[in-house]
Amino acid sequence: MIQLSERTTIPQLLRNVVQHIKSPDSPFLMEKKNGIYKPISFQQTLANADAFSAWFFANGIIKGDRLGLIIENCPEYIYYDQGLQQIGAINVSIYPTLSETEIEHIINDAGIKSILVGNPFLLRKVLKIADHCPSLQFIIPIFNDHHKISAHYSGSKKILTFNDIQKEGAMLLPSFQDKINEAREMVQPEDVASLIYTSGTTGTPKGAMLTHHNFVNNVKACLEQIPVINPDDVFLSFLPLSHVFERTATYHVCCAVGSTMAFSQSLELLGKNMIEVQPTVMSVVPRLLERICEKAMKSGTNAGGFKSKIFLWAFEIGKKARFQREAGKSLGPLLSAQALIADKLVFSKIKEKTGGKLKFLLSGGAALPIAVGEFFGNIGIKILEGYGLTETSPVMSVTEYHRQVIGTVGRIIPGITVAIQNTDTKKIITEQTHESFDPNFESEEGEIIVRGHCVMKGYWNNPKETEIVIDENGWFHTGDVGKFSNGNLKITDRIKNILINSYGKNIYPTLIENTYLKSPKIEQIFLIGDKRDYITAIIVPSHDELRDNFDLDEDFFNEPDHFIEEERIVKWIKDDVRQLSNELAKFERIKNFCIKRHPFTIESGEITPTLKTKRRVIEAKYAEEIDELYEEMVEAE
């Protein structure tokens, strides 16, 4: 049985599973090797973790030391993490997409002693900056042929392969087993389990100190909120474990419940992996769901003739059925029969592409567009939307399995208090808890603040920044604007994102951007309008749509010019912009736009690893083009 208490720590989770829930030889992890998914048992996982713990102790690594990981999701991540957690060391996972400068900053700020490295590209990055990192002692590639790269390295850091450490650790284990067992019992809930460096849309990344208490209580609360998760579930993991969302919602939940955790090979192979693994649960980001929605709608409506009519009829039936379910009403005999036919003819084929066994998808990291939530609701795939930040471990609220309000991020989880604070007067408008939930409650809008078990210990080596975000009453200030709607939390935007036009009107970009993102022609959009008379935008078109509509080859997308000025493409985008503008207030509508040839990327520094746009960076980088958008309109007037 699942036994989580206030004193449970991360290294106790798996051991509780093998003692009370699953047999030691049951599959815990699944990795694709030689073309097939192969299981790795709880026993194998714990043995590998123990081997790493023994090696850590033998090499002078002790409780409180910070150990790094820059690696894609894989079993090696789990072994290394479990090995360090049970001796009281601290996991510092680094986004693989970060620049060498950012990686160097994190290694030095955290004082990392060893770093697990996932592939040759990342090893080259680490080796370039290794000698600028005094604390770093060991570099551990998970691949054996690292010598092709490290042969040219002449620095002082030791480079040891994962397999060699595993073998050495297994040999050392008999001498260190008692010490490991003692160390595991000495890990306290208040101890820091991980430093997760925030993406930093403004300024230098800061290391959020998340404790065992933070993580375990977040898992415990989420399992209470979504009680349908059980040991028979299969999770497919593809979001990075360097991000707190996947760490908690997939990895730690599987550790607590005894569910199986399978690793996707890559985003490109995710569709294939879903069919192979047949997951029952997945953590996802809205952009993935948008793409599934776009492809399904395009495939269904482009078929033409009778097939298109059946497709559209099925979605109309799905919509009616969803409305009845959301209202808590039965479908009735006619609608039930129609819904079964719609599922058999249309929806089942879409579901088959997800593996056919999904209980639900958990969406987080950004706002889920209402139209996307409705699409999945219409076809009978449940989307539970969660909300939180790195600093809140991360979940603060999540949709209840039996009660969904599309457009909100669910009910407050047990054990915390969430308040709405007036952004001007700083007066608290309302305080809500899990227990105070009222499905009819509505509140005014303001900044979302929180206190309770989910709030981080603070920023590593940065008391000044900690004091800015955690006030004297223990409230963590999220920087997000929101309100309560139907008892659920609803996110409006980021305070830093709010645009105030020249007339003093507050404009919330996220809601506007999501309106325009309904167009399949638009892949990304960035709004401009702060201290301006009206809204303009930088639009990144869908490359797939451009290819299909204008018969373009790859050379077109590789041209060095940042912006597309072809009149036929501008008009093509403008048609959808005009149509969707009718859904917005006049002051929210885009008056002019430019079309960016290449997407905003992490590598270019324009978006964060969690896909949030860096407003200052983009506005500075494209200042000339932005000014031209306003000059053109002045001339036109």
Automatic annotation (TrEMBL):
GO molecular function, one term: long-chain fatty acid-CoA ligase activity
Membrane-crossing residue ranges in chain numbering: none
CDD domains (UniProt xref): VL_LC_FACS_like
Domain of life: Bacteria
Alphabetized InterPro entries for the sequence: AMP-binding_CS, AMP-dep_synth/lig_dom, ANL_N_sf
Pfam families: AMP-binding (PF00501), AMP-binding_C_3 (PF23562)
Entry's Gene Ontology cellular component terms: membrane
Annotated AMP-dependent synthetase/ligase domain residues: 23-460
This protein's UniProt keywords: ATP-binding, Nucleotide-binding
UniProt-listed PROSITE patterns: AMP_BINDING (PS00455)
Designated name of the protein: Long-chain acyl-CoA synthetase
Origin species: Solitalea koreensis
